[in-house]
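Checked the freezer inventory, then went back to the computational side. Two predictions to log before the end of the day. The first one is the construct we discussed on Monday; recording sequence and tokens without edits.
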Amino acid sequence: MTQRTDVTRALAEWIVGCDLNDIPEATQKEGVRTFVNWLGCAVGGAMHETVDRALAGVSPFSGDPTSTVLGRSERLDALHAALLNGISSHVLDYDDTHLKTIIHPAGPVASALLAVAERQPVTGKQLLNALIVGIEVECRIGNAVYPHHYDRGWHITGTTGVMGAAAAVGRLLELNEQQMTWALGIAATQSSGLREMFGTMTKSFHPGRAAQNGALAAYLAKADYDSSEKAIEAPRGFANVMSEKQDYDEILGGLGENWEAALNSYKPFACGIVIHPTIDGCIQLSEELGDDVQNIERVDLVTHPLVLELTGKPEPKTGLEGKFSVFHSAATALLRRDGTPTAFTDEAVNAPELIDMRRRVKVETDPNCHEAAVSIKATLRDGRVISKQVERAIGSFEKPLTNDQLDTKFVDQAALVIGKAQAEELLKEAWGFADLTDVSTLARATVPR
């Protein structure tokens, strides 16, 4: 590991100089997939009560209503729209994941970008460039401090996402190297988000606030509002204060050559990523058992310890808590073959048959079990035992969702908010956003007719 004292400035220099032509075609294609997935999630979560309450809380303080609250008729100023859209894109826990760090990259970055794009002219190519740059920044910073930073209790999507959003919006504002260095510093000092909030409305506040604060950092830097020029690497800077690990080679090594943004993955299930193998395996088990799934006496899971640490809520009371219950997730996968947003509603977690089944689920942890694997053993009342082993779940980097599967995911969730016909039209526009001369039309196309 190389010790450096110019990490923040070197990163800023790269951000300012990285044009779309410098980004490999494969990474650009993944950037489009990332945007499509994010937009579907933002619209899909738009009518959640979390968004209703956030909107009620901040609307009185909004300025000039330049920007769309995606999937709704309300408009806010760009910074508050970034906040709301970051919340809606994450509230279902259905958004993208950089599996190396468990960062949800698009929420902070894309939410800020599209809100700003309604305030000034932005082409699709400019948006794609800024999106990829912002994601690259947050994921590389995440790599430098993960897992110690996460293990301390920081929600890494919020803490690194604010710097990704600052970098991305800074690209749209055409910040120079000095201003971009300041923008990263202003963002870093606002870095926050606690894992204690998982299972509550405030979890989705983290990417929303990161989007809002990152955009604010870029606007302040544009006005020559200064900050420390060593905000990431200084002894009292982000990495040293918030982590026991500081590997700056993860930030600057291979920058512009190896792309973290190309490693993004997309969830088939609307919950914590560590439960996905359990849901995948339990759905397979349910399909194999057919009606006999009703005769399950006991389900034994063997998982990595992180699964219980993150999703060990045995008796969730709300849909949001259900997203962090491996017990509920196994039950709804077995009885309803469902891991989509409908599996994580207040109705679902309080359904008597699901409560009964989740109480039959027992979890044993094994540190030698991979975080992305699970062993499942179902014992039936007649004594039969059916086993299932999942090494990597659907939606993992090894088994990524296809474009067709992304289409289905997009329409299924967005249709609940804006109707199927409008969702299909929006999906088509989203896939072609890089060719738009004005991406603000895409935000307005999310407003329910």
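The second is the one RB wanted added to the comparison set:
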Amino acid sequence: MKDSFDVVIVGGAVIGSAVAYFLTANPDFDGSVLVVERDPTYAKASTSLSSSSIRTQFSNPINVRISQFGSAFIRDFATTMQVAGEPGPDLNFHQGGYLFLANTAAQERTLRENHAVQKACGADVVLWGPDELARAFPHLDVADIRLASYGQSGEGWFSNTGLMNGFKAKARELGADYITDEVVGITRSGDRVTGITLKSGAKIAAGTIVNASGPRAALTARMAGLDVPVEPRKRTLFVFDCAHTPEGSATVNNGRLPLMIDPTGVFCRPEGRYFLSGCAPADDPAVDWDDFEPRWEEFENCIWPALAGRSPAFEAIKVVNQWAGHYDFNTLDHNLIVGPHPEVRNFIFANGFSGHGLQQGPATGRGVAELILYGGFRALDLSEVGYERIVEGRPFLEKAVI
């Protein structure tokens, strides 16, 4: 392996591999790329443990447009990621849509305000009253619902590891180097980072370093004498079987049910013959980077009561699988941080996605590649989610965070 690279990416899951792909696929880039990944199995990566969904139903235009690009990219993924003439992974994109439910005046107002932003961006989202909601999804109890917001296209779920592995395979074909090792040190000279030290003892010079290390982003930043407000937050997902499944009962979208977000915050979507569900815990502390013990009690205490109250079909359900993963949680505003440090311009952050990393991976990879190549964003201006707001303590407003 060489001892010097133009770009070193710390972390090889979906964000790091997206950056590697968009760099090496750009005809204006003729440099070298090294991706350092500590765990080539990705068994505990946020990518692998994600619910792997994408939506355009956000409140900020930037997040809407990020997902619009991501949705189009996912649809064409197998063609774009051809390797040696063979198609890339089929991401099995189920365009089931998202369904947000509101049962308070404040929630209704938020859905209406969000919808205005989404429509201005061209998102295919409609608002329904309780009667329209009941006609579309007859299994739901809508007695308390004031308003629903439904994504008719461009939203759904897909293969998380397929997205990551497709990016990785294509980036390697285009010349990116991947190594299994761990970055344990970053050298810095004044206002520039100059290289990394690996756990194996190797030292590698770097022209630019990209922090794509997920929940460990703060550890990576500290090696360069920098800070980023990202910490691991645990999220438990439950797969359950349903005695009388409502899948197929919808009068829209060929009978397929959407990813529903109940007013309680509990979400639920089809997962093959089963359903996948989860919720944000009431007590949500930072956890150890190696703590992946599921919070078993969340199903009985939070998820099942909410779902059983929303649909008679969910009264008789049984958990068949569960696991816990980590959000790379941005404690300032729960949104992505993409861009260089203002004082160390060749250290670039791609962190803090707070559960949105998979859907925002394509746009992030493209944006970081543009920063490295051109010194600024071109396709979509992501400067509002740059690191400067962290320094200033100025949150990026996004009301539709799950």
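For RB: The two ends are 42 Å apart (CA to CA). The CA atoms of residues 254 and 364 lie 33 Å apart. Let me know if you want it refolded.
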